[in-house]
Amino acid sequence: MTTPPERRIAVGRVVGLFGVNGWVKLFSHTRPREAILRYRPWHVDVGGVVRTIEVLEGRLHGKGLVARLAGCDSRDVAAALIGADIAIDASQLPATGAREYYWAELEGLRVVNLAGVELGSVSHLIETGANDVMVVRGDRERLIPFAPGYIQDVDLDTSVIRVDWDAED
C-alpha cells in the first residue's frame, strides 16, 4: 500500500536574479517574510515540473530576500527559476492553536450560512487593517470578514465553513 503524497503549501516565488553566482530574489508569503528561509527543503515548480531543492543560505536584502540554492551556481541556471512557485510540505508548518488556521487550509472550503444556503467556496483571503476577509465565489462574489461574529465554525474534516451571513448580502 502506498501512502498519499503530502499536501504542499505555497510559501513564495522566485522573482529575479541577484548577482552572477546563481543567487535568486524571492517574494515570500510567510510572516515574517524571512521565515521562508527556515523551511527546508523547498519544492519548486518550474513550468509544471516540481523539483526538490535545498536552500544553502539566504538573507534579507533591502526590502526583499535573496537565497542561494543547491545546484544553482550560475546566473543562467538561476534564470530558469524566475517565476517558479515555492512550496513546502504542510508538516513543516508549526502547529496552530485552537480556532487558528493557515490561509491555505481555508482556500477551497465550502461556505454555508446558518440557514444552510451554500454561498460558494473560499477563493482566497485578503489582509485588511482590521481583520482578514474571505473572498467567497459562488453565484456571485462575496467578501466575508474572517472574524468572530461572522465565522461560526470551521470544519476542516468536512471542508465547510459556517458563517452568519445573509445569502442576499
Q: How many individual helices?
A: 2
| CA distance, first residue to last residue | 48 Å
H/E element sequence: EEEEEEHEHEEEEEE
Tell me the count of domains.
2
Q: Assign the CATH class of the largest domain.
A: Mainly Beta
Fraction of residues in helix? under 10%
Number of DSSP E strands: 13
* Assigned CATH architecture of the largest domain: Beta Barrel
The helix-and-strand class reads: mainly beta
- In spatial order, strands of the major sheet run 4-3-7-1-2-6-5
* CATH third-tier fold name of the largest domain: Elongation Factor Tu (Ef-tu), domain 3
In terms of DSSP E residues, the strand content is over 45%
The backbone outline, from C-alpha atoms, is elongated
Average pLDDT reading: 93
Largest sheet: 7 strands, antiparallel
Uncertain regions spanning at least 5 consecutive residues? none
Question: What is the radius of gyration?
Answer: 19 Å
User: What is the CATH homologous superfamily assignment of the largest domain?
Assistant: RimM
Keywords: Chaperone, Cytoplasm, Ribosome biogenesis, rRNA processing
GO molecular function: ribosome binding
Protein name: Ribosome maturation factor RimM
Subunit structure: Binds ribosomal protein uS19.
Describe this structure in words.
It is a single chain. This protein is mainly beta and 169 residues long. It has two domains: 8-91, RimM (Elongation Factor Tu (Ef-tu), domain 3, Beta Barrel); 103-163, SH3 type barrels (Roll). 5% of the residues lie in helices and 47% in strands. The chain contains two helices and 13 strands; from the N terminus they run E-E-E-E-E-E-H-E-H-E-E-E-E-E-E. It has helices spanning 75-79, 103-106, and strands spanning 8-18, 23-28, 42-46, 49-53, 55-61, 64-69, 85-89, 110-113, 118-127, 132-137, 141-145, 151-155, 160-163. The chain has a seven-stranded antiparallel β-sheet with strand order 4-3-7-1-2-6-5. Strands 11-10-9-8-13-12 form a six-stranded mixed β-sheet. A hairpin with a 2-residue loop joins strand 5 and strand 6 (64-69). The termini are far apart. 21% of the residues are buried.
